[in-house]
Amino acid sequence: MQSACLPLIATVVLLSGVAEVLSADDGVALENEPLHQTIDRFIEQGFVQRQIKPTPLAADAEFLRRIYLDLTGTIPSASGVRHFLADPSPAKREAVIDRLLDSQAYAYHMQRQFDVMLLERQHANYITVDEWQKYLRTSFADDKPWDQFVGELLGTDGTDPEVRPALRFLLVRTIDSYRRLEPHMVAKDVGRLLFGQNLQCARCHDHPSIASYHQADYYGLFAYFQWSVVSTAKVGDESKFVIVEQPKKNTNYTSVFVADQPEQMALLQLPGSAAIPLPSLEEGKEYLVKPEEGKVPVPAFSPRSQLVSGLKDNVPFRKSIANRLWWMMFGRGIVDPIDLHHPDNPPSHPELLDALAERFAADGFRFKPFLKQLALSQTYQRSAFVEETTGAENLPPEAFAQAAIRPLSPEQFGVAVMQATGLADGQRAGLTDPADETPLLDFQAANLKAFIDLYGKPPGQAEHDYDSSLFQALFLANGGIVLDWIRPRPHSLATRLQEMTSDEQLADELFISVVSRQPTPEEIVDVQNFLQERTADRNEAIQELIWGTIATAEFRFNH
């Protein structure tokens, strides 16, 4: 994408209440300093050290599209863009951040984000997709603390109806037709998804290329799940699948690379924490509630309960989620890749990551206040585009001196197309209660399958990036779904454009609706010339203009 595709407005918009960067010794987070100022201070120290000049703050249109995509997974409506651009308030950026975080669309977007993160598009029986997704949406709408949320994922046995859907995280990691939990699969995924450490290659020996990843670290996570099995029990009036703990002989391991090494016992150990030996349970006293048919046994010692109780104070757990949320908003982690936290892959800004992790924990592990502070920072609000006169065309991505240009996820792309074409506006106009957008959001979710099938990664693969392909290009050119959405219908963009008599007005509505900005004078002339050559089939030409604008890199990427 060329920098010319989004011309910069020549003014810098500052947030209301953002003071000058406070001075402090390097590596010190000021106790009463707002987190967004802490972010900017540490990032700007990097500019000085690297002797680089960052891009200016993004113009209003660039910021608005970015914050909508990052917090709600879609682009703003044309009326929303016009209202924001016309608003003279210096506090309007903070106001739109607050509004989006409180919206229903935020909960749906976070549900999609974390569904893909936690399950990686894998399927599991016995907990339905609807149950799981509703659980996720409610958790994010209520701003459930992350340590509580993860505690439910890893600790629930499935008997509590309120958190039973969380069982899907473990049930998807089973074998033998979902009847036997695979603790190796769970340990591997818990390590990389929740603690930022991909320990898979440390199962049979110490990691061959990462000196700090030891076989004991892998089995430290494995030990929490070695007693967990899938069973059946009465839940209410029905017999349902549950996950229970059955004390048994503890697992021993040895390295395949070390001859004659004595076997080691797997000890309970979270990354960065001390090991806890599993107790030797006296025969006959293994359970507080003994296993009986149809009942859920309660062990005298629960490894998974030990794991859950250790989350809140675990530093790698805090750093991993702080880094992952930063990656979601900035397109790159402070530790990157985000699942390879180790000394040989240090954070680009170590003191900043420490401050983010501690502030996230101090604020109760809640997402909304944390995401707001990320969005309020000048670091987040920088432009993605470098002016040719600055001489800073090669800004290193790890410096966060400019906003990253990143591809839309399959879900973002699909929902954004629905908004751009006016399909979403048509659904919105039919809402019985305009304040309740649930029917619209459910409609959008039901129409994402084609985008996920084509743009999503295969089940079981981490989805951190996007690969363009010929089939994807052909989907935009020939896909019946997109072409159908472009056709005229009530409230559609095509209908709005066909009703306009001024080609300049038409160009303005087209660009604001699709790429969330006003067209340049050159783009207006291009639209006028194109339509003047197509007077005989003007309506078809308008639909081609919509398709062509959606097919641009400017639309396909978040910037």
Structure summarized in a few sentences:
The protein is mainly alpha-helical. The chain is 46% helix and 6% strand.
Walkthrough of the structure:
- The chain is mainly alpha-helical and 559 residues long.
- The protein folds into three domains: 3-102 and 314-404, no CATH class; 122-310, no CATH class; 407-558, no CATH class.
- Helices cover 46% and strands 6% of the residues.
- It is built from 25 helices and ten strands.
- The strands form five sheets. A two-stranded antiparallel sheet has the order 1-2. Strands 3-4 form a two-stranded antiparallel ribbon.
- A hairpin with a 2-residue loop joins strand 3 (228-235) and strand 4 (238-245).
- Helix 5 (104-119) crosses helix 6 (129-141) and helix 15 (410-420) packs across helix 18 (449-455).
- The chain is globular.
- Mean pLDDT is 89; it is low at 1-25.
From the helix content, strand content and strand pairing, which structural class follows? mainly alpha
Annotation, overall tally of beta strands: 10
Strand content: 5-15%
How can the largest sheet be summarized? 2 strands, antiparallel
User: What's the total helix number?
Assistant: 25
Low-confidence stretches: 1-25
What general outline do the C-alpha atoms trace?
globular
Integer tally of domains: 3
Distance between the termini: 10 Å
Kindly report the spatial arrangement of strands forming the biggest sheet: 1-2
Which value, in Å, is the CA radius of gyration?
26 Å
Mean pLDDT: 89
Helix content: 40-55%
